[in-house]
Amino acid sequence: MLTTLQAGAHAESLATRVLLDRGYRIVERNYRIKAGELDVVARDGDILVFVEVRSRADGNHGEASEMVHRGKRRQVSRVAAHYLEARQPQFEECRFDVVAITGDRVELFQDAWRL
Q: Are the C-beta atoms of residues 63 and 86 closer than 8 Å to each other?
């Protein structure tokens, strides 16, 4: 049985592979500040993408995608704003994607929300 930390790391690795397969370029993983963390920062063409990864072992208690509620979106958005100020990356626009992993099913939700 995986610990919560191990399961999270496994989910982020799986999400990274899915993003790479779809043509994303990974810029950074696990950007952390006191207010929270960005799981993956990537580029999709000229778009800077902040990717939130959520996982559930199975769908018995809901889908992984349901775990990205308004409070979580707000927290990730705050950390992304800090990232933009600290790193000052060059990009045309930015968006937030979600990779939701429920059991063996992996779903990518592009443009889940914007700043």
A: no
